[in-house]
Give the backbone structure.
Amino acid sequence: MKNKLFLLVCLLAFVLVAVTPALAQDKIQIKMWIAFTDNRLDWTKDKAARFGELFPQYEVIVEGYPNYEQLFSATALAAGNDALPSIVQYFEVATQNARDSGYFKSIADAIGDRTEINGVAVALDDIIDPTTAYYTLDGKFTSMPWNTSSSIMFSNMNILKAAGVDTPPATWAEMEAVCEKVMALDNAPEYCFTWPNHGWFFEQWLAQQNQEYANNGNGRDARATSVNIASDAAVALLTWLKDMSNKGYLYYSGARDGASWGTVDQAFQSQQVAMAIYSSSDTALYTETGKQNGYEVVASFLPYNQDAEGGWTGNLIGGASLWLVDELAPEVEEGALTWLLWFNNTENAAEWHQVTGYLPIRKSSVELLNTPDWYAAIEAMGPSTVWLNNTLVQESKGKVWFEANPNFRVASDQLANSKITPATRGAILGNFPAIRSIVTTAIDTVLLTPDANIPEILAKAQENANASLTQYNTLVQRALGQQ
Amino acid sequence: MSATTPVLITTLAALIGAGLMALTFQRMARPAGVGAVVGALGGALGAQVFMLPLEYCTFASAKTIDHVIGLALVGVGMALLLWPANWIVERLRGGWRGLLIGDTQAGAFRGWLTPALLLAPTLIILLLFLYYPSLDTLWLSTRSSILGIPGTFGVCVDNFTALLNDASYLKALGNTAFITVAVVVFSMALALLIATAAYQPIKGARIYRTLLIWPYAISPVVAGVIFLLMFNPTGGIINYLLRQVGISGIRWLNDPTFAPWVVIFASVWKSLGFNILFYIAGLQNIPKDLLEAASIDGANAIQRFFRVTFPLLSPITFFLLITNTTYAVFETFGTIDYLTPGGGPLQSTETLMYRVYRVGIQNNDLGNGAAQSIILFLMVIALTVIQFRSTGRRVNYGA
Amino acid sequence: MTTLERAQLQTHAQPRARFFAWLPQRWYVHVFLWASCLFIGFPLFYAMLVSTQNNAQVFAYRFLPGESFLDNWRIVMIQRNLASYMLNSTVVALAVTTGKTVLSLLAGLAFVYFRFPGKWLVFGFVLITLMMPTEILILALYNFVTSLGWGNTYTALIVPFLASATGTFLFRQHFSNIPAELSEAAQLDGASPLQFLFRVLVPMSWNTIGALAVIQFVYVWNMYIWPVLIIQGQERQVVQVGLRTLIGGDAALVFGPMMLGAVIASIPPVIVFVLLQKQFMSGFALGRDK
């Protein structure tokens, strides 16, 4: 026994010594946490490596978290642990918490009136309008926009055409009509369509009906003090979803929030459903997977409620932005700003759009992609292996990007056609991530309970959400003395 | 609340304490007067244990339930002081030395400094990282506190009353009871069955044992990951196998009926090895002559098992009951978090422990999370006491 | 094998006229045990198969190893850097196991071989902590440990777990069963308590030490919720949390790397447990050849 233990300890000690890396470090380290663990993480890491070649004084270390929700709580925990990195990717609904927490510094303040940093142009006026509208708070950029998306729909045209449908449905009623045809097919898929039970889609469908989510101008005129998630618009939405579910058209995976996305990917890619409501963030993945597996994927606007007063108002953006941590050492902050600006320069923003489907967030990127010159420009910037291995990119070489890949312009078009109202600018409120989970839980209850009383469930959810918001606001006012 | 409320409560507590202790002293043939003084003191101070930190807020509230909780807290505070006092008095009958020394052993080393030094690291760590956080949880449970926002403020017992009115909290309570009972019963029964075969001296017994017990070392997280693969609705092997026998389309993890069973199955699988190991050991310790005697008396194998083997296994069963309950309540967290993140469809796999995390960390409501922790804490204490009282006495220690 | 087992085997081995002579003795027990082993082993076996496959092969339900092992290995070890998580888990598990064993030995020594005032009180103080699972206290523990400035350090993963009521209790039981003559002899020789501990008690306690080591190693290696709270970033994170990066919450599941990660993360505790199995059993006074 004694010998065995001794041997074991020796073995483990050996492993320790052998694996312990050398800790020599002379570069300025910039740590960035992002909420991706798929090829979006690989892409970001490639970009960080390229940045290191161009600016050898810096080393950008990128770490991935599985989803926004986990990264959000990890950041709050890290603030207590004194373990914050230099840059954190926060999703759009964490904006109010990020402002109240006090551990971030406004990008505009950090940049000051400089027009370039380390030779990288600032040019924040080059950012596209919907993104600027969302992230401009108190008249200035608080965080650096990065991945901006909109909610769209992907259709498996092989199935739709087999059912005699040539264009994807645009409204809820059309959706039902198409589903009826699809499910009548001899080799019908298991379900007609699916969507992630994520709070963002609820918000999108409310915005489409010009229904504000929170009071005080959706929280943009003054701090929001109550939410309005039991409105007629919300009841209409849940009634429609429930109806589609009862008819066997809608597949609800039972997964909520951050865990819900993967289940939709899986259902669409295995052709168990004909249509998937999703984020434009994965346009590249959906289009490419379809091509590889022999079915055509067409992206279209998010279907809307044809009975809503005023019809379709518009959609809001989604995605996340990059927040600069406060009180960094000056040289680290300088490096972080350089990285943020370079990372989102014209060519990189265009490349990011191509490998994912997020909007190209610079007007100059859109212009570039409207010419056939984009390939050479991105190649000169030093593209990622993700881009080089992307078949859509390689096949489109020498063509005007948006003409060769119409799916990629759907999200931009949808936002460009949207009317800018308080509802479509998107809500800003405290405890929003927690309130989102109240909403998705309510939707879960509606869809999984037979004979669910929708107005009652929504009223209860609203009560809980308001309690959560009131608690948050009271704490912020009492503890921080803020308004 | 008027300014006299604290005085009133304290006086009441002192009177009740005095009465109780006077009776106790009388029963133990000691001067009842002394008992009354001790009791009055203990009662008056006991009332302050919770009420002073809370500033008697429960009695300032308009809600009846707050007053009830307040009175209960006064009672608990009194018990916390009077119970040890009573106990000390009982022990004092052996004189002051009996109170301090306790058990002794021949040939022991003397002195207090060495043992103090030997115990110091253990005691300090327990004090700092278990006792202090326990008290701090209690404090936190009376505050409004949001993770990531600095500062807190007192909310009396609102976090607790909020839980009482929270249907989803009660749902989590039911889930916990269901999952715990199922895991404990299935895991232990199956383990006993396998152990009765594996403990016998047959060829390759050692190999069998190793192949049976290793899942003990698998983590709840890995159990979750592997079962996520097996029960996945699209590519999972279980649905593939079921399709071969004509059953199809069960969406295990997405169906509120089946999702808790997947969690149970994964947890049983993970804990089976541990239970088998202990049952094999227990079975080997049963004297063969007892079984032979029973078989001479004409008992068949099943009768022998229930009349001889099972009662003799009761110490092991009791031990496993406690460890398995703890496992099912606390450690299934990792399994649930990987199998059904967020607590499953219709909240069907959300246990109390998972809810502490989901509300406290994911939804950032630390105060509510702490209140849940306190209730969980009380349940653990109650369960331990019940287990020791009911099973502990009947356990057969003869083996 | 003990004498009794051997004797029983011999009884069974006596030649008997049997029709199914080609079947092993008590074949039904073997069949049952093989079935049980398969039932228990299947999930891990299947996970190992999948760890060599890509998604297409997983969905084709191939019960043969695939060709994607190297690809999966590259994703797990290089892209997701599982090796660094494994290293962190090793450091933490070893430190806690060692520290906990030593502190429990010291406490056990104090409780059994010393007479000091208030012993029962102190022992009660230790024993009550059996009712306080760390999991319940994590929110407050998080607040406290971060206020010490230990956030995101190994210290936060190690120090709070160094004391153990289970360990103290186990050694107290074990020492109480050691004949008192030994300590008397040691005192006559003028040995100090620590000399007595390391020269006399420890050599007699390897089984108990082994048992405690197994429990603690497995417990710490498998710890999940506390590292989620107290460690952020990859540098010091442990492998149970690191597995999260293989399950992209935001993307479709890719099973191969996920299973490879799960299998790799399970190797150290399973090896420790299987190797120290015998000590584990006799340490808990479970084996009869003690």
Notes: Residues 76-283 of chain C form a domain with the MetI-like fold fold (CATH 1.10.3720.10). DSSP finds 16 helices and no strands in chain C. Residues 1-18 of chain C have pLDDT under 50 and may be disordered.
